[in-house]
Amino acid sequence: MCYLVRAGPDIVIGARRPSHHRTLRGAAIAVALSAVTLLVGYFIYLRVVSYTEPSVDIDCAGGTTWTRPESPATS
Known about the structure:
Elements: H1 20-49, E1 56-58, E2 64-66
Antiparallel strand pairs: 1-2
């Protein structure tokens, strides 16, 4: 008599096929991190390029006069 025995190891490491959910989750995390990075970079850019404009009076003669802010009266 001849018996056909299917031989195989008892412990199989990595026998499962990779899940598509892991791939999608990794892509979603990468997209979310990229979006957060761009958003933070945009806010940093806005902070760097913002400045206060000085108050300037321009008359028709072409001269520019700078007006200083009012200082408290010192008597």
